[in-house]
Structures are given as structure tokens and as C-alpha cells.
């Protein structure tokens, strides 16, 4: 898998001149003012070094950029926020979509149409004005497009509605030939299937339309316990969550809180275990369901409450500014008592680990059901998603990676046979056939051959065009 093309020469100013004259937005080469700002990504330990950055104002700008890249045999990488970027993009043309951030809410039709550069906070805020909600992720600073193309595991509404990709109505996408295509179930069914779950392998999505749901509020938040009670809380949660309705989405996380001013003083430097709750139902019913968890051990902090949907980011309370970190995830096919014991050994209070968080998310429900219009999402039927995150500077890279690897390797006996592409590491040489499974991968590779036979969209967990 080629994450970068180190052999490609730099783009010369003379070569870029026709593009500069044509593009309405910005065309930036290394050393140009603004180049460093536009190549910055969310993970401060990751660096992009592209040959050129195009910051489009329009679809036409994207078409010109792709045509230029294809003519120079350069790969293309799309960046909104850069929460999940693969490789450093040496020799590549990066298309930074942040300026294409239109959001149109159809309150009657319960849909949103968003541009390529939109982040979830913008959708949540505008949809909430009409009492509607999307299938957003836990962190509202994440870009809508990349999250959705990778599947989209909503920790608020996903268990009752499925993956975000399941509810995409249509996409506008510029393919490797520079053509703008409006893609839906009728117009180009194969490409529509592949885009929803195939991540960034098939083109640059310039806009997408998806369903919204009438959810103005939730009963949600997190219950924190002392790390010493990790075993009690985890086992109680594992027994409790399977009997909850699909309107209850929940996860458990073991956290090692940093000693920084942003963390409340009583939590700094502590090991905590937290149960995250998002219940789309009556508050009284939510309180009744959650009460057995509250009784497991003394509660350190309880933020579970009735909240307007616009406040859902407070459930996971993730950073809203770029940070240095390393993360990677796997899917689990089961979580029996033996697996519970092993997880406690790996991340509990006595574990020698530098992980800042290990989160186990319970899936099932609508996540297991094929949507009316099937797509390429590969992880249906796998009941758990496990994510490990370590934080620290690039100088600690080997330790960061080792901490995550120790967790995931330790849980390998219960690992599922497919992967969730949005939880893969930026430098992880993941075999796309192993991510999607052989039958699904074969279909993706065939569609890739049709729409990107030269594989210019290869700076990702790459689906290689069929021979």
C-alpha cells in the first residue's frame, strides 16, 4: 500500500500557473503564505507535506484540481479537519474543503444537504432549530463527509437508526476523470453502494444529502466511578446493556485523567471508569433504567440529565482543539466473562499502561440491519467496538503505539473478522480486504476500476482497482 509518493518531484511554479489562473480559491505550494495553515491536521503528531494544496471555493475548483493531479500522475487527498488522515501526502495534491460549508435544512422533508467542508457542530446547531437531529459522532468538530463515508457510528441515535451511511439520500462527487456526478440509488447504484462505507477511495464528495430525525432532546451524560471499581462497573455494565431498548446507546470507558487545568481538580491524575449514556426516550424511563448502574459503586461525578440535543457533545466531552495522540480500534465478536477479565487486566487500575482512554461501545440493534438501500459498511453483526487512545508528543511515538497495541493484542482472542475503517490508525498498513471481507472487497475493487483505474485516490486504506 502506497501512502506516499516520495519519488514524485515538486510542483514547479510554472506548472501551477494555469491552475492559479483558473481556480477561484487558493493554490498553495510549499513556502507560500497559508500553506502551513492549510496542511495542519487535528492530530498534532501527524504532518502533511503535499506538493500542492488547493482550497476550493466551488465544485469547478475541485474538478480543475483533480484534472491537474491526474495529468501529473499525482495522488489526491481530501482534507476537511484532518481527524483521520492516512500518510503524509508526499507528492500529492491536497484538496482542503473547509470553505465549502453550506448547510441547508429541509424541516418538512427532514433532510440536510451539506457541503464538503461542513463539520457536525454546524449541522447539529441548524437542525436543532427545527427540533431535528443527525446521526453525528461523539465529537462535533469532526467533518461530516469523511465520518459518513466511513460508515458513521453515532453514539446518540445509532442503535435505533443504524449507520450514518445508511441514511444518505444522495451525493455529489467528482471522480478521477474530473466529472461531477450526482449519485443516488437510481442514477449510479454501484458507486452509491461503494461511497457509503468505502471512505475516500472513489472521488471527492462535494455535497451530500441525508436524513434527520425528530429528536429535540435526550437523556444523556456520563457516570464516573473511581478506577478501583473498574471490575465491578464493567461487569455490571456488560450484564445490563443487552436488555436495554434500542433507544439506549451506551459505552464504557476507562480513563487516566491528565493533570492539566482543563480537568476539574478533584479528577486530575485519577483513574476513572465512565459509563456513557444517550437515551432517546422519556427522562423518567431513562432514570429508571440507569439506576442499577448508579448503585454499583460510589459515584464520583454524574452528568446524566435531560439535555437539548445541541448539547450532546458533553456526553463524551472530547477535546475541541487539536491534540497530539495516537488511536486505533478493533471490533469484537463477543464479550464473555473471560474477555471482561482480560480487559480489566489490560486497562484497570493495576495495569501498567499509558492509555488515556480505552472505550468499549455496545452496538447491535439497527447497526446490524441492512438498510433499505444496501451499502459497503462492513461491520454489521459485530456487537462491540473497542478503541484505544494514547496522548503525548511525537517524541513518545513508540510508547504511544505500544500502549494501544498492548490493549488490542490482548483482546485479539475475541476480535471480529472485519474492521471499522473510521477507527484505523493513520499509519496502519491495514489490508483493505481484511477491513471489508473478501466478497465486499472484490465488489469495491471492481467499482474502483470503473471510476478510478489509475488509483489516484490511494492515500487511504486503499481499495486497489481490480486487474
* Overall morphology: globular
> Helicity range of the residues?
25-40%
**Oligomeric organization of the protein chains:** single chain
- Secondary structure class reads alpha+beta
Mean of residue pLDDT values = 95
- Major sheet attributes: 8 strands, antiparallel
Radius of gyration: 22 Å
Q: What is the tally of beta strands?
A: 17
Per DSSP, the total helix count is: 14
Layout of secondary structure:
Blueprint: H1 13-22, E1 26-28, H2 35-39, E2 52-55, H3 59-71, E3 76-79, E4 93-96, E5 103-106, E6 111-115, H4 120-128, H5 144-149, H6 158-161, E7 168-174, E8 180-183, H7 189-195, E9 204-211, E10 217-226, H8 230-240, E11 248-256, E12 271-279, H9 283-294, E13 299-302, E14 305-308, H10 313-316, E15 325-332, H11 337-347, E16 355-362, E17 384-391, H12 397-410, H13 432-436, H14 438-451
Parallel strand pairs: 2-4, 3-4
Antiparallel strand pairs: 1-2, 5-6, 6-9, 7-8, 7-9, 10-12, 10-13, 10-14, 11-12, 11-16, 15-17, 16-17
Helix pairs in contact: 8-11
Task: Fill in the keyword field for this structure.
14 helices; Vanillyl-alcohol Oxidase, Chain A, domain 3; Uridine Diphospho-n-acetylenolpyruvylglucosamine Reductase, domain 3; alpha+beta; eight-stranded antiparallel β-sheet; Uridine Diphospho-n-acetylenolpyruvylglucosamine Reductase, domain 2; 3 domains; 27% helix; five-stranded antiparallel β-sheet; 467 residues
Amino acid at each position: 500500500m502506497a501512502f506516499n509518493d516520495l519519488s514524485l518531484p515538486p510542483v514547479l511554479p510554472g506548472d501551477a500557473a494555469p491552475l492559479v489562473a483558473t481556480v477561484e480559491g487558493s493554490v498553495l505550494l510549499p513556502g507560500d503564505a497559508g500553506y502551513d495553515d492549510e496542511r495542519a491536521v487535528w492530530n498534532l503528531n501527524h504532518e502533511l507535506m503535499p506538493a500542492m494544496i488547493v482550497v476550493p471555493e466551488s465544485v469547478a475548483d475541485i474538478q480543475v484540481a483533480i484534472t491537474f493531479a491526474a495529468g501529473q500522475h499525482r495522488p489526491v487527498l481530501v482534507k476537511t479537519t484532518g481527524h483521520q488522515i492516512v500518510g503524509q501526502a508526499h507528492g500529492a495534491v491536497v484538496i482542503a474543503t473547509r470553505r465549502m460549508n453550506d448547510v441547508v435544512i429541509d424541516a418538512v422533508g427532514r433532510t440536510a444537504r451539506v457541503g464538503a467542508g461542513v463539520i457536525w457542530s454546524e449541522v447539529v446547531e441548524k437542525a436543532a432549530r427545527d427540533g431535528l437531529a443527525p446521526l453525528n459522532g461523539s465529537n462535533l468538530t469532526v467533518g461530516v463527509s469523511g465520518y459518513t463515508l466511513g460508515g458513521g457510528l453515532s453514539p446518540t441515535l445509532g442503535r435505533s437508526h443504524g449507520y450514518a451511511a445508511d441514511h444518505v439520500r444522495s451525493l455529489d462527487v467528482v471522480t478521477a476523470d474530473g466529472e461531477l456526478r450526482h449519485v443516488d440509488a437510481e442514477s449510479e447504484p454501484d458507486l452509491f453502494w461503494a461511497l457509503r462505507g468505502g471512505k475516500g477511495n472513489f472521488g471527492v464528495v462535494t455535497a451530500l444529502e441525508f436524513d434527520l430525525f425528530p429528536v429535540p432532546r435526550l437523556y444523556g451524560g456520563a457516570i464516573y466511578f473511581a478506577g478501583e471499581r473498574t471490575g465491578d462497573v464493567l461487569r455490571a455494565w456488560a450484564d445490563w446493556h443487552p436488555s436495554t431498548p434500542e433507544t439506549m446507546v451506551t459505552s464504557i470507558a476507562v480513563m487516566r485523567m491528565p493533570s492539566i487545568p482543563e480537568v476539574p481538580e478533584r479528577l486530575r491524575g485519577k483513574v476513572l471508569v465512565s459509563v456513557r449514556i444517550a437515551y432517546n426516550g422519556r427522562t423518567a424511563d431513562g432514570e429508571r433504567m440507569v439506576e442499577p448502574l448508579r448503585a454499583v459503586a460510589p459515584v464520583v461525578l454524574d452528568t446524566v440529565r435531560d439535555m437539548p440535543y445541541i448539547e450532546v457533545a458533553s456526553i463524551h466531552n472530547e477535546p475541541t482543539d487539536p491534540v497530539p495522540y495516537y488511536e486505533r480500534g478493533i471490533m469484537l465478536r463477543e464479550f464473555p466473562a473471560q474477555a471482561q477479565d482480560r480487559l480489566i487486566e489490560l486497562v484497570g487500575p493495576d495495569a501498567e499502561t499509558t492509555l488515556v482512554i480505552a472505550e468499549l461501545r455496545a452496538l447491535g440493534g439497527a447497526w446490524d440491519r441492512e438498510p433499505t438501500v444496501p451499502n459497503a459498511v462492513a461491520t454489521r453483526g459485530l456487537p462491540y467496538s473497542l478503541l484505544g487512545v494514547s496522548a503525548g508528543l511525537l517524541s513518545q511515538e513508540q510508547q504511544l503505539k505500544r500502549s494501544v497495541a498492548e490493549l488490542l493484542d490482548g483482546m485479539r482472542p475475541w476480535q471480529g473478522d472485519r474492521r471499522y475503517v473510521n477507527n484505523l490508525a493513520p499509519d496502519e498498513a491495514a489490508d483493505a480486504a481484511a477491513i471489508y471481507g473478501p466478497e465486499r472487497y472484490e465488489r469495491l475493487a471492481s467499482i474502483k476500476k470503473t471510476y478510478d483505474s489509475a488509483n489516484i485516490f490511494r492515500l487511504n486504506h486503499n481499495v486497489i482497482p481490480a486487474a
